Batch of 3 targets.
Target 1
Amino acid sequence: MGGGTLSLVLGGLGVLLLYRVLRRLRPGARVQDSVVVITGASSGLGKECARVFHAAGARLVLCGRHAGRLQDVVQELSQASAQSQTQTYTPSTVTFDLAEEESLDRAAEEILQCYGQVDILINNAGISYRGNILDTALSVQRAVMDTNYFGPIALTQALLPSMVRRRSGHIVAISSIQGKIALPYRSAYGASKHATQAYFDCLRAEVERHGVGVTVISPGYIRTNLSLNAVTGDGSKYGVLDKTTAMGRDPRDVAKAVLEAVRRRRKDVLLAGPLPALAVYLRHLCPALFFKVMSLRARKEQRP
């Protein structure tokens, strides 16, 4: 009986390994000449995504709140095109604020006017949060949710009908490992990312039959200014580069992983080190231990 069980387990692992090898050998989705929309494209991960997708020959529509910063990115990419051996295109830009719901339908129309279609939408824009729940105004919780959750889903739903009509498209949500596990003093941010994970998981199931793919990318900490620009409980800027953020992944590497996930049309991607990845599994397999670890972490941080 023991030998039979072992053989069954090994056989199952062999099948799983073969499946993964065959998936890697399968031709990837075409990025060159595709229309790729990137929100939050003026800095951080969004800017790095713009670089890697531009180098891959995509027709970019860069979105953000500041027209001048978007034009700076366009200029950088145009200069980089001179050394590229791939056919590249001068990016278009659309300026809007994800937190302003009334501007999103207009923004979606402008995006579609750029090339007449959207092949890939990368929902990257977002804000972070640091604070004690006891000292955090409800307005701050709402503001984080507006930018990180309601804004991206409103833009997605505005562009989705055009993808469904063409029976083609790919939607990417840049979430976070905090969409899978909750950390103390990150309540608003973690809640927005948990909501993001749930929404796009539902969307994936509903639109697959229409030929539209959905990918959720969940990175750990990335070396960007996200924590510097994080809001606090009273709505002011946090203004501190967390040690964990400073030691995070290079945003260029994360952007390359996003490009690969799009090419492979992967559904859910966790970009985290061994300990954060273990925490995700621990949350589901041994929740009592996970909650104890988080309680100890909260006491250690003692964030005012």
Note: The radius of gyration is 20 Å.
Target 2
Amino acid sequence: MKRFFLLLVLSLPLAASAQKLTESAIDDISTKMAATFLKLNDPALVFVTEQMSRTGAGGLEIDKTMQDLKKDPATIDAALKFLYQYSDCDRQTFITNLRAMDIKSGNVFPIATYTVNKYKNEAKELIDEKGALYKSGAIPKAITLMVAPPANMNQATAANLEGTPPAAAQATQQAAGAPATINTTAAGVESADTRNWDVRLVFGMTKPDQLLDLYGKQNVELRDATDFDGNDAGKAWVVYPDTENEMAVVFYKDSTKTITFGQENAKWRAPFGIKPGDPVDKVQKVNGRGFRINGFEWTNGGTVQSFDGGQLDNKGVHLLFRALNTGDPKLYDSFTGEKSFRSDASGVKKLGVIVEKVQFRTGN
């Protein structure tokens, strides 16, 4: 009996360490991931960053987030989760990847134990998701730049993008010159569109010149901007105007900005994976819970009143919804006017509520 109690006492510190990371471990993983991230072409960190951005766990300005993960415990957890996913949820592979980032030997085991225990029940789901993401192209297998390029992309060449693989340099340079048409081979056969559709490149910008340099002056126009209610919102720099990939960017004096999409077939890749045309239940799934929408045909009609503390809350994500099936007056009237309704309310699915516009606001 005494031996049992002795073993129990000795095991308590190990159990506790598996549930909580020390400040030393948190600082270590934050510092080392930041250093690896800045190399731009590390396969593990490319995957982690793509997942952080795709799911929204890294916020809108992913480059800043990845360079200071320790600011938010939830962000550290997400980064470790996606590194574990990249490691095929295999403990030894995960440890190998931690050591590849030069994590201190005294921190490797506690970090591995913490992560494996935290996500062991999600292992199969994470492995299946990784395969599906690669198969669908949601996360490219080819390595691409993870942060915003230099302000003057026309001067950036493969030579000064040191350490960047040829494919990534080529994709970035083509995004800079960005002709509106897809490249063709000498034989006249169309090749894949290699323009960079990652919205994160825009999140890091502070002035319109960077937008013009990246996408080409011929592909950007300055136009009047309106908010979701149709009110004047100043001027917007519109990328690929009047096409399915139209994107409007408004720059403010405090270096914040809004980025708006309203086309259902746009190619842009943005945090959370939400796009115009998505049904309300997809947004609800991303948010992790139901949320409140302002009644249609009224001030702020169809906009999100509150994400009710979900994953999208306070993340700078603003959505405008519309109803497809308005032929039933009684049903539609129950969701219009000066009121709000829950996204999971009875009748919402029948009404065919979908995302009409997506807007990201940095600095919020």
Note: Residues 4-18, 143-190 have pLDDT under 50 and may be disordered.
Target 3
Amino acid sequence: MTTLAINQLSTLRWSFQEDVAAYAARGFNGIGIWRPKLEDFGLDRTIELLAEASMSVTSLSWVGGFTGSDGRAVDDAVIDAIAAVRDAANLRADTLVVLAGGRNNHIRNHVKRTFCDALQEIAAVAEDFGVRLSIEPIHPGCGDEWSFVNDLQSTLDIIERVGSPNLGLVLDTYHVGMDEEVMGWLPDVIPHLHLVQFGDGRHSPIGEMNRCLLGEGSVPLHTIFETLAKHGYDGPMEIELIGEDVEAIPYDDMLDHTRNFFDRMTGSVKS
């Protein structure tokens, strides 16, 4: 059975206990964990709570900033990432999400080399712990400070350059799904695909991320879902809903809408 999860960013104001109870009540069998919430609640308590709810961890988010764009030195970002690898192993997370960091006024070749060097160091530890790392390409319209990796092709290039069997990618439909070329890339991406995050938006990202309820935006979610299924993707799926268009919607209503949307979408494909 495919794991269907909610990322905790979607219910940021709730406590960890509220997240798990609400997700489980609607039949979501996975959770995407946000590291600040994990730190607040505690690793041991989290493992116990998820075991009681029979809920798996689809992702742990995030590590990165290896270009210095968030003010940290590269070595500090690597140390933080290695600590997160250990947490991901204890949580039995499907993947640890990686953001490259912004260009930070460096030339592209320099930041790419810096990122790949950091990834090789982290991947060696991840391989020892059996943890998968997943680069997430971020749309440049809303994420220049978060990542210089903005599309599927550049993500695959980095994966090939690092050459770790534990390194793959996260496909977030909000960031890449409005690109008309994405459907053509999906067959090449699926062998490296660790997680699909479903997000929708009324227009291409500009400034802050602003996602809307699934099915109410411009991302061809049904087509993406059908293409993934056609080419054999059977990994976890996670929903991430944040931004001005959803922040006023009660979390319970947002989760109900998401559950209904996925029931309709998966039902139409199965039929």
Note: The chain has a mean pLDDT of 95.
